[in-house]
Structures are given as structure tokens and as C-alpha cells.
Amino acid sequence: MESLGIKRGLTAVEASYVIDLKPTQIVTEILYSLLQKRAVWSESINPSLKLRVMPEFKNKTGSEENPLRYYEIDFLNAVKTDGTLDEEKLAHTVMYLRDTVEEKLRGFSRKDTIDYYRRIVNQAWTQVEQAGTPDLASKAYDEQLLWLLLDPNNRVRTETAFRDRVFEPNPMWFWYWYGYTNYNPRPVAKPNIDAPAQSVKPPAIPGAEFANNIATAMEKTSSNFVLNLEKFANSIVPSQTTKVSHEPAHHKASCVCACHACACACACVSCACACAGGGVG
């Protein structure tokens, strides 16, 4: 009996499972989450992704200021010594995420929960679209990135949001450098991986070009995670949980933050309230 209404408090990565993204897209979300935390860097993308785990994350736990979530730890455990990804361990990452989220959803309405996180995605877009300057819009895009990537129309909406303005990247945005250096056919700047704050700020780029870079990065990354996609797919054991929706006891939701067990009525997707397990990663 789904009687508890909406399940709040899921991260963007967990929500990617709830709204039914493909396993490779979920793994791409986890990668971008790790890139945002500067936990990994891409050494190459062909024929498959090869990553470098950054020194402060070698212990695969992160730090007190920047801890890793369970799925990020599982992802790092799938990175082999040569930087490539172990298909079976990567599949375990997806399965453990799936099982964890299914347990969190127990007793809650799946339909209402899906609708709730789709609203969060739309609210994230609103923050980008209503930003007054290119700099603020770019900053909002960075802050809401993981939620924005859940939108199947990400390319079009990014292009629309930056149609009349440029995107102004920051040297500290590792996710941007990943897409820019790997998928831009004519990159004009490269980051200082060991000291990103000392990197020369890359030039602003037109919104349409930026949208294309981001979409291309997501698409190619999803298809280049492993050499053997079939082995990866076959390693994912079907869930025993049946996705069934029932009529719930409705609870009006006003809080849109993604903090775990959040009880505050904050009005921003990227809220910084001090609830346990808070954050949008």
C-alpha cells in the first residue's frame, strides 16, 4: 500500500533511476557527479572511457568537506588500475543504486514521486532561464547541472536558455572541461588538472554551440563507458521489485530541495539547509 505520498530527499542521481533513465545514462550522471566534486578526470574517451582518480579521492571516501555518496564510491571501485572500467563492478553500481532507491520508495507513491522530481527539473531550468546575466545563467547551470541532465530535452532547452547570450565557463568546473576538451572539435584552452584555479579561463561560447557540446558529451559518454556494452548490460540482474503505482494519500509538497529527509520549506533546488545527507549530487 503506497500511502506515504511523495518520497522526497533523493539526489539527482537517485532520481535518474526513478524517472527511468537507461543504465548507461545513470552511470553518466554518476560520472558527472564525480567530475563536479573533482574526484576524477578523463584521460581519454576512445575506444572506451579511461579515468584518473584524483589524489585526494584515492581512498574512495572523499573528505569531511566533500564526502562521496554510496554510488560514487561504487563507481570508483569499478575503476581499474589502468583507468578503464570493470563492466561487472559498474553493473553492481547500478544494481545497488536501484535496490537502494527501491527500498527508499517502499510505501511511497512512485507516480507522485516521479512527478515531483520532474517538477524539480523544471524548477532548475527556471533558475537558469530567469538569471539576469550570462554569468549568472552560467553559474546557475553549473549549480543545477545534475538535475538539468535528467531532462530528455536538455539540448533544446540549453540552446533556448542561452539563445541570446553566451555561456561563460569557470576554470573550476571540471564537468565543463570534460565535455569541452573531449568533444569540442576545436578546443582553444585546456585546464590545469592539478591546479584548476590556476587555469586560464576559457572563452565564452555561443549558446547553441555549448548546448551541442553538452549533448554530444552525454551521448558519447553513455556509449563509451566500457568496451563491451553487452557484457555490462547482461551483468545487470533484473530487479525483483515490480514498479506498481497505487492511489496514495496525497500530501501537498512545497519543499523543492533535494536534501535527505528534508523538512524545511526552502524554495531553491540547490538549497544548503543542514539536514542530514543534504545535497544535490
Total strands: the figure is 4
- Could you report the average pLDDT, rounded to the nearest whole number? 84
Q: Please tally the helical runs, counting DSSP H or I stretches of 4 or more residues.
A: 11
Beta-strand residue percentage:
under 5%
Number of domains: 1
The SSE order reads HHEEHHHHHHEHEHH
Shape: globular
Q: How far apart are the first and last residues' alpha carbons, in Å?
A: 30 Å
**Secondary-structure-derived class:** mainly alpha
Strand numbers in spatial order across the main sheet: 1-2
Summarize the main sheet.
2 strands, antiparallel
Spans of at least 5 consecutive residues whose pLDDT stays below 50 are 242-280
Give helix % range: 40-55%
Question: Radius of gyration, rounded?
Answer: 19 Å
Question: How does this structure look, described?
Answer:
The protein has 281 residues and is mostly helical. It has one domain. The protein is built from eleven helices and four strands, in the order ααββααααααβαβαα. A two-stranded antiparallel ribbon has the order 1-2. A hairpin with a 5-residue loop joins strand 1 (40-44) and strand 2. The radius of gyration is 19 Å and the shape is globular. The two termini are 30 Å apart.
